[in-house]
Design brief:
With 103 residues, this protein is an alpha+beta fold. The protein has a single domain, classed as Alpha-Beta Plaits (2-Layer Sandwich). It contains three helices and four strands, in the order E-H-E-E-H-E-H. A four-stranded antiparallel sheet has the order 2-3-1-4. Strand 2 (40-45) and strand 3 (51-57) form a beta hairpin. The two termini are 22 Å apart. The mean pLDDT is 96.
């Protein structure tokens, strides 16, 4: 199953620069593992926010829940999840031309 997540962070304002850097490094390492494991397919920064849109692929919604709640910054995340499927335009393109062009 594929899901699109909108994740916006609301971090404590009293964190030191060092604490923020430590948390960002820990979060990045966990995210990189999710990419290597084939779970996190794409991630895009939302301009003007400390947040992202991301595409995830998991067997179940429960698996996605386990992954997201395992993220170090999870306690500070506001998360919206949308199950997604291929659009008919994508299906038609792939039937006529093969894979969609890369970004």
């Amino acid at each position: 199953m594929q899901f699109m997540a909108k994740i916006v962070l609301s971090l404590p304002g009293d964190w030191s620069k060092e604490k923020l850097e430590e948390m960002n490094l820990t979060e990045r390492a966990r995210s990189m593992k999710m990419v290597r494991d084939g779970k996190l397919k794409r991630i895009y920064r939302i301009a003007g926010l400390r947040g992202n849109f991301s595409i995830w692929e998991t067997e179940t919604a429960e698996e996605l829940h386990e992954i997201l709640t395992s993220m170090p910054l999870h306690p500070y995340m506001n998360i919206e999840i949308y199950p997604i499927i291929k659009h008919t335009t994508t299906i038609a393109w792939e039937a006529e031309h093969g894979s969609m062009p890369p970004f």
